[in-house]
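Problem: given the chain below (720 residues), write out its structure.
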Amino acid sequence: RGGPGAQSGGKMASTAAGKQRIPKVAKVKNKAPAEVQITAEQLLREAKERELELLPPPPQQKITDVEELNDYKLRKRKTFEDNIRKNRTVISNWIKYAQWEESLKEIQRARSIYERALDVDYRNVTLWLKYAEMEMKNRQVNHARNIWDRAITTLPRVNQFWYKYTYMEEMLGNVAGSRQVFERWMEWQPEEQAWHSYINFELRYKEVDRARSIYERYILFSTLHCCFFNQALLVIVHPDVKNWIKYARFEEKHSYFAHARKVYERAVEFFGEEHMDEHLYVAFAKFEENQKEFERVRVIYKYALDRIPKQDAQNLFKNYTIFEKKFGDRRGIEDIIVSKRRFQYEEEVKANPHNYDAWFDYLRLVESDADAETVREVYERAIANVPPIQEKRHWKRYIYLWINYALYEELEAKACSNNSGDAERTRQVYQACIELLPHKKFTFAKMWLLYAQFEIRQKNLPLARRALGTSIGKCPKNKLFKGYIELELQLREFDRCRKLYEKFLEFAPENCTSWIKFAELETILGDIDRARAIYELAIGQPRLDMPEVLWKSYIDFEIEQEEYEKTRNLYRRLLQRTQHVKVWISFAQFELSAGREERLQRCRQVYEEANKAMRSCEEKEERVMLLESWRSFEEEFGTDTTKERIDKLMPEKIKKRRKLQAEDGSDAGWEEYYDYIFPEDTANQPNLKLLAMAKLWKKQQQESEAAAMDPDKDIDESET
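Solution.
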C-alpha cells in the first residue's frame, strides 16, 4: 500500500534489527558434577602411556647402486636447502648440512656451505670453530691456517681463536709460526692469561730471554686505563702489583736474583708513595729473606710501615712480626705491636670500664711486655671498676681480675723485689678482695681456698686455717667444707677432719656424699663401730638428697665387713621403706653370693617374697623384670620343676588400645600399648578364659573355612 519506497524502508529496518540481535547461548540444564572427574594429571598420564605424540621411526633404507645413492643425496640436499631457505639465520642448519657433506667426504661442498654460512653470520664463533676443525680433521693444514687467519682478523677479541691457532701450530712443530701468531695476538693487548700462555710457550722451549722480554712488555701494558678527553685517547700506564711480583718470581725461579731484585726496586720506584701496596713490600721482603739479606728485609719493612696507613698494613705487621721472631730483635717489633694494641685496649676500656674481657686482654698484653709497676697500675685500674649490682652473676668475671692479680704478684713479679715482698703483696691482694666481697649475700669459695693454699705454700699453716675457719663462720658452703677437710687430710690431722665433718653435717645434714665420706674415713682409720654409727645416723635423717646411694654404700660396707646378718637386716629395713624391684633383685643376688649351703634356698625365698609383694604393684614392667631375673637364676641353678614353675609364672604380653586426651581435655585419638597378664593374678582369670575361648573359636573358624574351600580333602580323610 505504501509503494516501493515503503517496502525498501521496511527492509532496512529489518536489517538493522537483525544486526542488533544477540546470538543465543547454550544453556546447561544439568549443572551437577559428573560422576567421573578427570584431572589434568590423568590426561597427561594417558597421553604419556599411549605415546600419542611419539612419531614412529622412519624406515631404514638400503642403498644398492649408484643411482639410488645419487637420488638419496639429492633428496637430502634438497631437504637441507629447504631448511636453510626457510630461515637463513639458524646456524645449526648450516652446520648440520656441512657435517653431512663432510661425512660423505665431499670436502669441497662442505667448504662451500661454510662459506655461504659465513656470509650470513660471520660473527658466529661456533661456525668458525667447526669450519677450522673440519679442515684440521681432514689434514688440510693450509686451509686451516687460512681459516684461522681470517677468524683472528675478523674477530680479534675472541681468545679461543688465538688459543686454537697457536696450539695447532705448536702441534705441527711450527714454533716460529706459533710465535708469530702470539706476537700478532699481543698487539691487541689481551687479558692476563694470554700473556701467561705466551710466556709458558717460550719457557717450554727454554727461551728464558724471550720470556723476560715478554714480561717487560706485559708489566707495562697489562693494565691500561683509557680516558677519552676532547676525542683524544690518553693511555695511562698503571700495571697491577701482582704482575710485577710474578715477573720478579720468574727471575727468582730461574736463579737470576740480581734481576729479581732490580724488578722489585723498579716496582717500588714506579708506584712511589702515592700508590703503595703492602703486598709488594711483603713479597720484596720475603725475597730478601730467602737470600739471607736480613738487614735489607728490616729496612723494607720499616720503610713500608712508616708510610702505609695502619689499617691497610695488617698483613705487613704480621709478616714483620714473624720475621723478627725468626731472625731479629724481638724487642723492636714488639714495641710497635704493643703500642698499637695498647692504644686499642685503652679506647675499649674508656668506652666501657666494666668490659672485663677487654681488661683481661689488656693485662695479658702488658704482662708480656711492660715492667712490674706498669702491670700493677693497670691491675689497680681494673679492680677499681667494682660491679654496681650485688648479684653473683655480675661478679663472676670481675673476681678473676683479683685472682690474676694475686697470681701475678706471687709468681711473676719477682724481678723488682724479693720473695718476701712478693708474698706480702700477694697476701694484701687476697685480703683486700675478701674484704670487698659482700659475704652476707654471696661469696666465692674459690677465693678463700686460693688464699689458704697460698698461705700453705708460704708455710704459714695457722693463717691458712684461720682463713678457712673465718670463711666457714661467715659464709659456710659445701665447697669450703670440702676444701678444708681435704687440706686437713693431706696434713693427716684426722681429729680435725672429724670435727669438720661434724660441722659440715650440722650445716647440710641432707648431703649423702658427706655422710659416706665421713664413714669411709672412719673405716680407713679402723673404727668400724664409729663408721656404722655414722651410717645409722645418716639413714635416720628425715631428708636426703641421694638416699639410694647412701643405702648402697651402707650395704656394701657391711658386706665388706662380712656381717651378712646385719646386711640382711639392712635389706629388710630398706624394703620397709621402698618396694623397688632393684632392691629385691639386689637382695636376691646378695643371698646368692653369701657363700653358705642354704644360699639357693634363701635366694629363691627372696624371689618368692618379692613376687608376692609386687602383685599389687601398678608398674607391671617391674614385676616382669623381677620374673626375668628369677628365671635367669633358675636356669643357672634350678631344677626342672623350678624351671617349669617359673615358666608358669611368666605373664602373657598382649596389645591393647586406650583413649588419649589433649591438655585442654579434647579427644586426641587412640594409642596402642602392651600390657601383661599374669597367670597367678586371680583378677585376670576371667579375661584369660575369655581370651582362650576366643582363640579356640578363631581356630575352629579357620578349620571350617579350609574344609569349605577343599571338600574333597574331607571326603578322603573320612574314607581313610
